[in-house]
Structures are given as C-alpha cells and as structure tokens.
Design goal:
This protein has 330 residues and is an alpha/beta fold. Among the domains are: 39 residues; 137 residues, Rossmann fold. Helices cover 42% and strands 19% of the residues. It is built from twelve helices and 14 strands. The strands form three sheets. The chain has a six-stranded parallel beta sheet, with helices on both faces. Strands 9-6-10-11-12-14 form a six-stranded mixed beta sheet, sandwiched between helices. A two-stranded antiparallel sheet has the order 7-8. β10, α10 and β11 form a beta-alpha-beta unit. α1 packs across α2, α5 crosses α12 and α9 packs across α10. The N and C termini lie far apart (73 Å). This is LacI family DNA-binding transcriptional regulator.
Length: 330
C-alpha cells in the first residue's frame, strides 16, 4: 500500500499539515531544520511517490559550515546572525540546508550540491571542502584568490570612517583593540581591520604602536587587554579606541567603567559589527554596522547562481558598512 501524508506525519511526530507544507516547500512555514529534515527523510524512507522528483527538479541540498561551535556562537552574535539568516533565506528559496559546526568537515554529507562556509578557513580546509563540491561560497572570508565566490564586509572604508570620526571630534591619539584568532586547525588569521588601521594612521603621521592592543575576540580578552592598557599607560592612555568586535568592546567597556574613566570625554569608543549587545549596554556603544542580513541573502543568491552555472568565474562581493553613533562618542 502506498504511503500517505498521515503515515509520514505519524512516524515523524508532526501534523499532516506540517508534512504537506514541508513537502511542498512552503516558504511561509516556520519550522526548525531538524524537523524539516526528519519529515523529508521519512518521506524518502516510506517511498512517498508524490515526493519523488525528476532529476531536473531535484531539491538542492546545501551544507552551512559554521567555523564556530554552538557555544562560541552564543558569545559572538555576529556569526550566529549570519548563519540563521542564511538558513532562513535558503528555506525561502526551496533549498534544504545541513548545519555543520566548528568546521567539522567530516560530517558534511557527500551528497550536498553546495557549501556555504561562514568564518575563517585555512588552505587545507579549503581543499577539504573542495573534495565535497566545487560549489562553495565563503562568507566573511576572502577566497577569491583560491577561485571561490565570497562575501566580505568593507573593512577598509569602515576603518577610515572610524578614524575620521575621532579626528572630527578633535582626537589625535587613537588606539585599537584588534583581534587575533586561529582557524580550527590552528592557522593564524590576520585582522584586516588592524592592517588598514595602522596604514591609515601611518599615512597621517599619528600612528603610535604603544596604543595597539590585542584580544581573541571574546569579551574576557577585551576586558583583560583594556585593563592592562589602563594600568600600564595611566595618563598616557589614548583618548579614543577602535575595537574589532562587539564582545571585546563589551569587555573593554567594563574595564573602563571599573577604572572610573569618563566616556566619551576622556575616552571615546567605537566597536565593529553592531550586534544587539552593544545597543543595550550602558553607555550604549557607537559601532560600525555590518549588514549581516544583506550578506546572508547575498550569499544564498550567489549560491543559487553558482548551482545554475557551476563553470562561471568566481566573484567577490564587498558589503558596505556605516557608523551608528551612540553614547560612547561625542
């Protein structure tokens, strides 16, 4: 006897309506990916004939590779926001997604038709992804030289905007809390924001290496780096600081408040990313806003084009940024 929607619903533990909407790729349905995959797998197991598709109408299945673990995501909403919006956008386009965390490349199903990779990747990891499929789109990682589509924020103009803002406020002594990080296979990833920051200040003749601090993109590292800078520099602490991401900015803000340093009159601060956490700290943090939703939607668009035209030349998309001023700048 042929399987029915009721059979699938019973085995998958969902309603018949949910089964019907999932099998018909209803983009308005709000359901988590585990449920979606369970229903689709059940339909295949029961050989549900109405779910069978011709080869030309095969649903695309794309792995979403997040370089962070689930725990790390909670400390950096930037990458979580990108991943979630990619999954949502892909679902609306009728694309099935398979989440993979912490670059656990061995868990990528070999039958995926594409990979959207979020975060930072070593050369060897890029080669591993290539063994699965050539249809790869990297997000927040410049892979154009390696021959793959990518989407990156406009770091260069973002840094110029920050420096110009501080200069407009009459501040010449400007520091930076930059990030240092490694891929999951321990390859060091340079911070492009730091490179552009140092080059810009050197060109203006106001670069001071003693005003450069480093963390690992976590809030605790931001707190420790800022606390150390306050203790070692004392009255010579710069009057403005640019911070490479929001978690470090929140940690640095705590250290500044503990030292009872006036913000923004004695120390102006600007973060990068503009996730929810910098909007609701006190004082609220001025930040360079990166359009994570736009980046995610564009990543899915690029993947759709790549799947349709796999032999086309790779492209690099630079996503614009802008400064949102709050209480940590004048």
């Amino acid at each position: 006897m042929a399987a029915t929607l009721r059979d699938i619903a019973s085995r998958a533990g969902v309603s018949i309506a949910t089964v019907s909407r999932i099998l018909n790729n209803d983009s308005t349905l709000s359901v988590n990916e585990n449920t979606r995959q369970r229903v689709l797998s059940t339909a295949e197991e029961l050989d549900y004939t109405k779910h069978k598709r011709t080869r030309s109408d095969q649903v695309q299945r794309v792995a979403i590779v997040q370089w962070y673990s689930l725990t790390q995501e909670l400390d950096d909403l930037y990458y979580m926001g990108i991943r979630m919006e990619i999954e949502r956008s892909a679902q609306q386009r009728g694309i099935q997604t398979v989440p993979i965390y912490q670059n656990d490349l061995e868990k990528i199903p070999r039958n995926v038709t594409g990979i959207i990779a979020i975060g930072k990747f070593s050369d060897s990891q890029v080669q591993e992804l290539k063994l699965v499929t050539n249809n790869i789109v990297f997000v927040d990682f410049d892979s154009l030289a390696a021959g793959y589509d990518c989407l990156v924020p406009d770091f260069e103009n973002a840094v110029h905007t920050v420096i110009n803002e501080f200069l407009d406020e009459g501040i010449q002594d400007i520091g930076m809390l930059a990030g240092t990080e490694k891929t999951t296979d321990n390859e060091v990833v340079p911070d492009l924001r730091r490179r552009y920051f140092e080059a810009d200040l050197r060109q203006r003749g106001i670069y001071h290496p003693e005003f450069m601090f480093a963390g690992d993109y976590t809030s605790m590292s931001g707190y420790r780096a800022m606390k150390k800078a306050i203790e070692e520099l004392g009255d010579k602490l710069p009057h403005a600081i640019f911070i490479a991401n929001d978690p470090m900015a929140v940690g640095a803000l705590k250290a500044v408040q503990e030292a009872k340093i006036d913000i923004p009159d004695r120390l102006a601060m600007i973060s990068f990313n503009d996730t929810a956490i910098v909007k609701y700290v006190y004082p609220s943090m001025s930040a360079i806003h990166v359009g994570t939703d736009e980046m995610a939607h564009a990543a899915v668009d690029v993947m759709v084009k790549r799947l349709a035209h796999p032999a086309s030349d790779p492209c690099k998309t630079v996503v614009g940024t802008h400064l949102i001023k709050r209480q940590t700048t004048k």
